[in-house]
Amino acid sequence: MADSIPLNPMRKGSGKIAYYNTARHSRYSLEDEPSNLDEMPLMMSEEGFENDESDYHTLPRARANQRQRGLGWLLMGGWKILCGSCCDCLARMCRRTKELKARTVWLGHPEKCEERYPKNAIKNQKYNFFTFVPGVLYQQFKFFLNLYFLVVACSQFVPDLKIGYLYTYWAPLGFVMAVTMVREAVDEVRRYQRDKEMNSQLYSKLTVRGKVQVKSSDIQVGDLIIVEKNQRIPADMIFLRTSEKTGSCFIRTDQLDGETDWKLKVAVVCTHRLPALGDLFSINAYVYAQKPQLDIHSFEGNFTREDGDPQIHESLSIDHTLWASTIVASGTVIGVVIYTGKETRSVLNTSSPKNKVGLLDLELNRLTKALFLAQVVLSIVMVAVQGFVGPWFRNLFRFIVLFSYIIPISLRVNLDMGKSAYGWMIMKDENIPGTVVRTSTIPEELGRLVYLLTDKTGTLTQNEMIFKRLHLGTVSYGTDTMDEIQSHIGRSYAQPSSQTQQSNSSTSSTPSRKPQPAQAPKAAAPKVRRSVSSRIHEAVKAIALCHNVTPVYESHASVNGETESTAAEADQDFSDDNRTYQASSPDEVALVRWTESVGLTLVNRDLTSLQLKTPAGQVLTYYILQIFPFTSESKRMGIIIREETTGDITFYMKGADVAMASIVQYNDWLEEECGNMAREGLRTLVVAKKSLSEEQYTDFENRYNQAKLSIHDRALKVSAVVESLEREMELLCLTGVEDQLQADVRPTLELLRNAGIKIWMLTGDKLETATCIAKSSHLVSRSQDIHVFRSVSNRGEAHLELNAFRRKHDCALVISGDSLEVCLRYYEHEFVELACQCPAVVCCRCSPTQKAQIVHLLKQHTANRTCAIGDGGNDVSMIQAADCGIGIEGKEGKQASLAADFSITQFKHIGRLLMVHGRNSYKRSAALGQFVMHRGMIISTMQAVFSSIFYFASVPLYQGFLMVGYSTIYTMFPVFSLVLDQDVKPEMALLYPELYKDLTKGRSLSFKTFLIWVLISIYQGGILMYGALVLFESEFVHVVAISFTALILTELLMVALNIRTWHWLMVLAEFLSLGCYIASLAFLNEYFDLGFITTPAFLWKVSVITVVSCLPLYIIKYLKRKFSPPSYSKLSS
After folding, report:
1. Are 981 and 927 in contact (CB under 8 A)?
2. Cystine design at 277: which of 45, 145, 560, 760 (Cβ 3.0–4.6 Å)?
3. 705 is in an annotated binding site
4. C-alpha angle with apex 702: 700 to 703, nearest 5 degrees?
5. What is the active site of this protein (predicted)?
6. How far out from the chain centre does Cα 107 lie?
C-alpha cells in the first residue's frame, strides 16, 4: 500500500502541484536521488494533493525554527550558551581525547601492548579533589539569582555604596553556599564509596607462576582472568576456556541489554582443547580485536596461534565475547582482556551523569530576572525624579542595593529546605515502602510529567514465563486440565516394551501405524483423524525436543578439568532437585519445564545429542543432526533429530503464527485460536513436524553444507535450502505462554493514562514479545489499532513507510531500533511529530544509547517534561537523560536504582509517587516561592514609598537586625510551614488522576499568578507605609515601630490566608513567630521606643493598618471560592 503513495514536491503558493507516482520508480531510484527527496513532503492523504491548505503546510519545520542570533539572543541567555561552549572547548583541549584504534593483544602478556590503554576503574563521580569547589560554585552562580546576590554583597565593600552592615548581605549568601557544598560533598562521598566497592572486587589472574589475586581496577589489556560462576565479568574479554565439557557457557546480560534470557557463549576451540590450564602460556598466540565500539550485539576479530605448523587462524564473533558487567551463569571461565575501563561496551553505552535542574527552578529564575528589571526601572525613576542632580550614578547604584530585597536571598534557602522536606516525606510514606530519593533537587518534576518512558523486562513484567494453554485444534487444555495430559503421557510410555512401537509410530515416515496399548485403535491411513492420546503424545514430544535448552546440574568442576565434569555427573544422576535449565529465551525454559511437569523430562544435552526421561524412568536418546536457531527475520527455529532406537529422522519446527501459517498443512483453526490467545495476553508458538527419509536428509545435508561454504550471498542461499524443507509440515499444536506482569501494572498504566501522561515502552526485546506485553499490560487498549512500522534500511523506504503511517489515526506505533535509526537520520522532526500524536509507542530492539537518544528527542522537540523508569544497567543512560529518572530495585540488580533520581521497589508505586507526592511537591514549592517573593516585594514597596516621601533620599527604612530578623525568626517558620499544605487529600488525588493534567499546564506558578502577587505586595506595602506615616505623631522612630509591627502581623495573616489544609505544626509556627517578635521587642530599644509600644495608641494604630491591608484579600478569597471554585475544591465538597 505504501508503495503506491505519491510523493509530492510542494512549493508554497503554487496552484499546480506536480507529483510522482512511485509505481514507476523503484525504491532504489529513490535512494539514488536524495535531492528529490528533500523536496518531498510526507502527505497525509490524497486530498492533500489538491488542497494547498493541507495540514502539512502548518507543520513546523526544524530548519525554520532556528532563531536569528542577535543582541537580543545574547542578552536573553545566549551569553550562557557561549560561555558553556568555551568551557567545553577548553575541557576538550585539556583532555586531548585519544583516537580509538584496533589492537593486537598477546595472551598473558600485557607488556607487549603497543599503546597504553585506560585503567579498568569505574568512575561515577562528578568532581575530583581539585574541581569540587570551582565546580560547585559554577553550578550555583550560573543561576541569575545567586549571581545577583554575589554582586550585591561585593558592592558593600565600596564605601559609597554601603547601605547597612556587611553581615546582613554576606551571612545569608554564605549560609546558602555552605548548605549546597555540604549536600554535594555528601553525594560525592557516597558515589566514591560505591565506585570503590566495585573497583576493589578481587579476581584470579593467571600468570606463569600460577594464580594471583588482583583488584578489578588493576586488570590490564592482555591479562588472563578467571571468572567464577555468578561473578561479574570485570572487563571486555575473549572467551578462551571453561570448566564445562561442551566448551560453552551461559552468561546473564541483563545489566547490559536488559534481557534476562541467558546467552550461550562459545570458547575459542584452539585454547579450549589445550590439555592443561598452564598450556595457555606455552603457546604463542594473539587476538586481533576491532576498535572499541558502541554496538553490544556485534564483534569482529581473529585468533592466531603462531607456534603451530601451519599457523592456526580462528575467526572471532560476538559468540566468543564476554562483555563487562555481565554475569557468568554456568561453570568457570577464563578469558583474555581486550578492552578496559572507558573503552568497554558497557561504559561506552552509559552517558555521564549531569546536574538536573527542575522546571520550577527555571521558571523562578525567569521571574527573578523580571524582578531585577523592575528594580532597575524603579531605581532609575527615583533618580530621574531627583532630576539627575549631583553624583546621580552613585545614587542609582545605592537605590539598586536599597531595593535588593525585592529579590530575597531566602528564596533559595527556603526552596532547598523544602525539597529536602519533600524527599523525607516520600521516603517515610508507608504506602510506598523502600522508596529512596537520591536527587533532592527535583521532587517538583514528579508533578509536571507528560511523557513516561518505561523499560519492559523486569519493569512492567516479572520475566517469569508460565505455560498456560495447549491447543490441538479440536481440544484445548488449560492450567486446570493439565492432569489429563499427564495421564495420557503416562499411558503412552507405560510399558517399556510398547515404547519402541510408540516411537516407531511417532516418527515413522511410512503410513502404517500399529495399535498401541492403552490407546484406542487407529485406522491405517494417516489422513484419518488420530486419537487424542496419540496427538497429545506427539505434541508433548515435539515441545520436549524442539528447543535450545540445556539442563545443568550443580557440580564442583574446576577449569583445568581435573575433577569430574558436570555432564559426566549428569549422566549418572538425573535427580530433579539439583537440575536447572538454561536457555537464551525464557519462553523455551517455560515449555521444557511444562513437559517435565507432565512427565517427559529433558535430563541431558550436549552439542550432538539430547536425552529425555519418560514417566516410567526410561532414558531415550536423540541425536541432533542440525539446528536452525531463531532469528527476528525468520521468527522460527527448527531442529532435525535422529532417534537412537529406531534411527528415524524427524524435522521439528516451532515459531510465530505469522511465519508458520504458510508452512503447515491447510487447517481452519490456527488463525482464529492465535487471535484468541493473543487477546488473553499469551505469547503463542505454533509447533509442527515433518518425517524425513534417509535419502531426503542426505540430499538436504549436502545442499546445506554447500550453501554454508559459499562466499557470496551465503545467508540467502542457506535460508533457501532450509525453506526447501519447510513445506507441508504437519501441524501438531499451538502453545500459549504468559509472561507474568508486575503487580498492579494494568491499573497503574490506566491511572497514568487518565492523568494525561503518554507512555512509551522502550525495550531491547523482540518485536513480537514487546507487542504482546503492550497488549496484555493494556498499554495499548483493546479498541486501539497497532501500526507495526515495517523494517526500513534507506531513505526511500523510510519516506514511503512514514507516508503510510501518517494516514493512520489514533493507533499505537510499534517500531524496531534499526528502523527508528533510519527515520531519525533523514526525517527526525516529522517522525517525532507523528509519534507524539500516538496514544502509545513501543520501540523494540533498542540499544541503551538509542533509549537515551529518544529521551533527548522528546525533550528537544516537545519541550515537555520526561520521566524514564527502568531496572537494568541498560536503562541507566535513559534514566540519566530524562528530566526525572526512576529506578526499580529488582532482579536485574541495583545499577539503575543507584543511577536514578528516585528509587522504588515496584512499578505500581509510581502512581502514588506522581499523583500524590509529585502534586504536593510542585504545589507547595510554587506557593512557597511566590510567598517568599511577596515577602521581599512588600518591604521593597515600603522602602520606595518611604524614599519618595522623604525627598528621594537613598536611606534605608529598616537597618541591621530588623532586616535579618524579618526574613528569619519573625516570618521563616510560618512561611516554611507551607511545605505541609495540601489542596487535595491523597485518596482524592489517586481517585481522580485527571487532576494531574492541570499541573502540567504550570498554572500554579506563572506570570499571571506572579503578577497577582506583585499587585498584592504593592497594595499592602503602600497601605502599611502610608498608614504608619499618617498615624505617626512626633518622632520618626514611631513610624518604624508601627510599620514594622504591622508588617510582621500582615505576613502571619497572609500565611494563614494561603493555607488550604491546616496542620498542627502550622498553628505552632504562627504562634511561635508571634511570640518571638513580642519577646524580642524588649531588646530592640535601639530601633523602638519601649515606652510608646506599650501604649493603647500603638496597639489600635497597628490593628487598623493590619486590618486594612488584609481584610480586602480575605473577602476576595471568600467570594472567589463561592462563585469560581477550583476543580479540586468541587471534588472535596
Report:
1. yes
2. 560
3. no
4. 65
5. 455
6. 38
Q: Which amino acid is at 1032?
A: F
Judge whether 713 is annotated as a binding position: no
Helix (H) or strand (E) holding 694: helix 694-709
For the record, the C-alpha cell of 83 comes out as 560561555
| pLDDT greater at residue 462 or residue 234 | 234
Give phi and psi for 640, each to the nearest 5. Answer: -110, 125
pLDDT digits (tens, 9 = 90+) for 714-739: 778 888 999 999 988 999 999 999 88
Among candidate residues 1044, 1047, 1077, 840, the one with its CA nearest the CA of residue 970: 1077
pLDDT digits (tens, 9 = 90+) for 538-571: 999 999 999 988 888 875 444 444 433 344 343 4
Tell me how far apart the terminal alpha carbons of the chain are, to the nearest angstrom: 55
- Helices and strands (DSSP H and E) totals, the chain: 42, 33
Query: CA torsion, points 240, 265, 847, 302, in degrees to nearest 10?
Result: 40
Cα of 1027 vs its chain's centroid, Å: 58
Q: Which residues are catalytic?
A: 455
Instruction: Provide the 3-class DSSP secondary structure of residue 379.
Output: helix
Give one DSSP letter per residue of 105-148, joined into a string.
Answer: EETT-GGG-SS----------S--TTTHHHHHHHHHHTSHHHHH
Q: Dump pLDDT digits (tens) for 1048-1095.
A: 999 999 999 999 899 999 999 999 999 999 988 888 777 777 778 888
Q: How many Å apart are CA 881 and CA 1120, to the nearest integer? A: 42
Q: How far is CA 754 from CA 459, 785, 992, 996, 1088, in A?
A: 20, 19, 8, 9, 58
Record the cell numbers describing residue 864, joined without a space: 515537555
341-391: pLDDT as tens digits: 989 998 888 766 677 888 998 898 889 889 999 999 999 998 888 888 778
667 is in an annotated binding site: no
Provide the grid cell at 766: 523482540
Q: Tens digit of pLDDT for each residue in 898-954? A: 889 999 999 999 999 999 999 999 999 999 999 999 999 999 999 899 888 877 777
456 is in an annotated binding site: yes
SS (H, E, C) 912-942: HHHHHHHHHHHHHHHHHHHHHHHHHHHHHHH
Strand duo 785-788 + 811-816: pairing: parallel
At 1038, the amino acid letter reads: H
- What's the grid cell of residue 108? 598473558
Alpha-carbon separation of residue 1079 from 969, 974, 978, 1084 (angstroms): 12, 17, 24, 10
Q: Can you read off the three cell numbers belonging to residue 15?
A: 496552484
Cell 530621574 sits on residue: 384
User: Is 1117 marked within a binding site?
Assistant: no
DSSP-derived letter for residue 461 is E
How many whole angstroms separate alpha carbon 582 and alpha carbon 574?
16
Q: Among 104-118, 421-435, 613-627, 804-818, whose mean pLDDT is lowest?
A: 104-118
Phi, psi angles (nearest 5°) of residue 691: -85, 135
- Assess contact for 1060 and 982: CB atoms under 8 A: yes
- 744 vs 654: CA distance, rounded Å: 32
The residue behind cell 536452525 is 628
User: Identity (one letter) of the amino acid at 669?
Assistant: W
Long-range contacts of 1030-1039 (CB under 8 A, 24+ apart): 1031/1101, 1031/1104, 1031/1105, 1035/1089, 1037/1087, 1037/1088, 1037/1089, 1037/1092, 1038/1089, 1038/1092, 1038/1098
Picking from 303, 358, 351, 294, the residue whose alpha carbon sits closest to that of residue 323 is: 294
* Alpha-carbon separation of residue 182 from 24, 78, 176, 331, 357 (angstroms): 69, 31, 10, 47, 18
Strand partners, 653: 638, 688
Q: Is residue 683 part of an annotated ligand binding site?
A: yes
Q: Which whole-number Å values give the CA distances from 422 to 439, 509, 781, 883, 997, in the listed order?
A: 11, 73, 35, 18, 21
Helix (H, G, I), strand (E, B) or coil at 196: helix
388 is in an annotated binding site: no
CA dihedral (152, 154, 156, 160) positive or negative: negative
